[in-house]
Design a protein that fits this description.
six-stranded antiparallel beta sheet, two-stranded antiparallel sheet, 2 domains, 442 residues, 14 helices, elongated, 10 strands, alpha+beta
Length: 442
């Protein structure tokens, strides 16, 4: 069994040698051992704003690229790690300048140890003082990575515009509040690899709306490259289907754990950048659990090139939520309605079939069906006026907020379709005309 304490000490000492080397370089160049920058430290966060104060943070006087350019040629612990672990060191990464089977020590340096060194230098506050606890933490993390056959790819998306009932885990998905440290990073938007001089915190009105984090952990074998996953996209769309008005900058951070991340990247998730209402929408634990079940049934091509009615309707629903102008949103909602309710109708029959089928598909009583039919007629009339360029000539004002009503109806239809399978044209006809045996369609 490898001696973790000894190996951790070797890695820690190697990192310390790099700190001393960079300290000497800085001294010869006349640079201070650290620079101070101003950052925002969040104390309290409410839906309408945050309380913060400026805080001074220390950084080494090199950016990461310069630090690596000046790094020394100290003998690394690569040989010791190879002797202790052998093939257990292998992960899926295959750099162009080294092969695990042919140039193993170079591979260990470039794939594993360089990642530890990058994180060490990025978090190092100054060059003139040892950071033994940090070095030991990173060394222990690398050993954890080496000794496990599995790892998790983690994706964290900050979101706002909602108030969840509480932290919750369902399957590989976790919903939790952002910590004060995470909010501070969001507010400041720090560039960890550059020196910022005399930068003051952002004014309160520019602070982000995000208060919660959606975290997806995708487990897998460490020697196989993780497959592209749309799990986060599916869950976000499912939350929107159950009524959550999610907002945010749509930038999700991606890393691996345990140990130093084998890669750090960003994943884009399309979100509205501004809340639809001033009051966050409340999302219950039941809503989250239902969204998790819906997400599992959302087809992947919803987020690429929709090749089915369901994927097209879901894609248009999400696109409508991003629309800057209400007429654009209404058109996209209408396309979603038509994709599910009238896949077989020509233009002349579109309005009639859409209203009748939608009313019978959702309504449970005669009165409810009448109300839904009237709402669908109004939505279709507004949609027709928009696409035919006559919106400015409309004289009849809608009795309700047409995009809001359209969103509610489309959400109900899409949720029902995901939970019960998409209805065929024959099934929709049976709802309106009655089954072929003459029974009551209800």
């Amino acid at each position: 069994m490898p001696d973790r304490r000894e190996l951790g000490g070797l890695i820690s000492a190697w990192l310390g040698e790099h700190r001393e080397h960079l300290a000497n370089i800085a001294n010869r160049m006349g640079l201070p051992p650290f620079v101070e920058v101003q950052a925002a430290e969040v104390e309290r966060a409410e839906p309408g704003g945050v309380s913060y104060f400026p805080k001074t943070r220390s950084r080494i006087p090199f950016n990461l690229f310069a630090a690596f350019e000046y790094k020394g040629s100290h003998p690394s612990p690569a040989a010791s790690l190879d002797h202790a672990y052998g093939d257990a060191l292998s992960v899926w990464l295959r750099p162009a300048d080294a092969a695990f089977d042919g140039q193993r020590l170079l591979w260990i340096d470039s794939v594993l140890l360089d990642k530890v060194l990058r994180e060490y230098l990025g978090r190092l506050p100054r060059l003139d003082r040892p950071a033994e606890a940090l070095a030991l933490e990173l060394g222990t993390g690398l050993l954890d990575l080496i000794e496990t056959p599995h790892l998790s790819v983690c994706t964290l998306l900050p979101v706002g515009g909602v108030e969840f009932q509480g932290d919750v885990k369902t399957g590989t998905i976790e919903v939790r509040r952002l910590s004060m440290a995470e909010l501070s990073d969001l507010c400041e938007l720090p560039d960890w690899w550059s020196v910022r001089r005399s930068r003051m915190p952002s004014p309160p009105e520019s602070f982000p709306h995000e208060r919660w984090a959606i975290v997806v952990r995708q487990p897998g074998a460490k020697d196989r490259e993780p497959a592209l996953s749309y799990e986060l996209h599916r869950f976000v769309l499912a939350l929107q289907l159950v009524g959550a008005d999610l907002v945010g900058n749509g930038v999700a951070q991606v890393w691996t754990e345990p140990g130093p991340s084998l890669y750090g990247s960003e994943q884009r998730v399309v979100l509205p950048s501004w809340p639809y209402t001033s009051t966050p929408t409340h999302v219950s634990l039941e809503d989250v659990q239902r969204a998790s079940r819906l997400a599992a049934r959302i087809p992947e091509d919803t987020f690429t090139e929709p090749a089915s009615r369901g994927a097209l309707a879901l894609s248009r629903f999400q696109r409508a939520l991003l629309a800057r102008f209400r007429p654009d949103a209404l058109v996209d909602f209408s396309i979603a309605l038509e994709a599910i309710l009238v896949p077989d109708a020509d233009t002349a029959e579109l309005k009639h079939r859409l209203t009748q089928r939608g009313a019978w598909y959702l309504g449970r009583s005669q009165q409810e069906r009448r109300e839904i039919a009237q709402e669908l007629r109004e939505i279709y009339d507004r949609r027709s006026a928009i696409v035919h360029g006559s919106i400015r000539k409309e004289k009849k004002k809608p009795t309700q907020d047409a995009p809001r009503v359209a969103r509610e109806l489309v959400s109900r239809i899409l949720c029902k379709g995901l939970e019960e399978n998409w209805p065929t044209a024959d099934q929709l006809n049976d709802l309106v005309l009655g089954p072929t045996d003459g029974g009551n369609p209800e």
